[in-house]
Design a protein that fits this description.
The protein is 42% helix and 13% strand. The chain is built from 9 helices and 8 strands. Helix 1 packs antiparallel against helix 3 and helix 4 packs parallel to helix 6. It starts with 5 loop residues before the first strand and ends in a 6-residue tail after the last strand.
């Protein structure tokens, strides 16, 4: 494998279980929404300076006339995995409280934690590119379950990207935007993801890219067009 000094990582299905977002983060968020909406007066006052109210007011006005209507709309966005900027802001606030109160921790794969430590010692730079918001990414890496404690691994990460900052993960232009931001040539980077469409887009941008095989991932391992890896041990 060619020498690289820049590693770009996906999160869900790559660094942690593909079920973490859908089985942990989304249910936690939806469980807290009724209580959160009870703290807000409807119809929403768009001049209110309370952070939560300001965020809720960014949803389409036809959905913000009552808490019942807004709750239904939020539930639909989550159920359909809609990448809505306002939804991501709201999720960030709820998840931050959950992380800080110790109600949410993430299990990264052991080989990921070991690789982050090894790459740091090798003076390689690690960047995250996930469909989740940058705030959510930072929260995740700062609350990692490691043996009997919770560790903050953000010191291993040099930077974060999401679709709102560089573009869709299945568009090659997005990866070129990351390289441009880092002032790096494609040959100096490697991208790791469980999503074949993302890997294909990254390869199109000239980046060495590997499809990550993890338990529960629905990846066609017999696809001869891509290189696969099931551990970061030898990277």
């Amino acid at each position: 494998m060619a020498v690289y000094d820049t590693i770009i990582l996906d999160i869900e299905g790559t660094a942690c279980s593909i079920s973490f977002v859908k089985n942990v983060l989304f249910p936690y968020f939806l469980d807290k929404i009724p209580f959160l909406l009870e703290q807000v007066e409807f119809p929403l006052d768009h001049t209110d300076r309370v952070t939560v109210t300001q965020i809720l007011a960014k949803f389409p006005e036809r959905y913000t006339k009552s808490k019942e209507c807004l709750r239904t709309y939020i539930n639909e966005l989550v159920a359909n995995d809609i990448k809505d900027r306002t939804l991501k802001q709201l999720q960030g606030i709820v998840w931050q409280a959950g992380y800080e109160e110790g109600e949410i921790v993430v299990d990264l794969y052991d080989d990921v934690i070991e690789a982050l430590d090894r790459w740091k010692k090798e003076d390689k730079s690690v960047y995250i590119y996930s469909s989740g918001s940058i705030k959510a990414q930072k929260l995740l890496f700062s609350h990692v379950k490691f043996k009997s404690e919770t560790r903050d691994l953000t010191n291993y990460i040099k930077g974060y990207y999401d679709p709102t900052s560089v573009g869709s993960k299945i568009e090659s232009e997005s990866y070129l935007n990351i390289l441009k931001d880092l002032n790096k040539d494609p040959e100096s980077a490697i991208f790791l993801s469980d999503n074949i469409k993302e890997v294909a887009a990254s390869i199109q941008a000239g980046i060495k890219s590997l499809v990550v095989k993890r338990p529960g991932n629905t990846v066609h391992h017999d696809n001869q067009s891509f290189d696969f890896v099931d551990s970061f041990d030898n990277l």
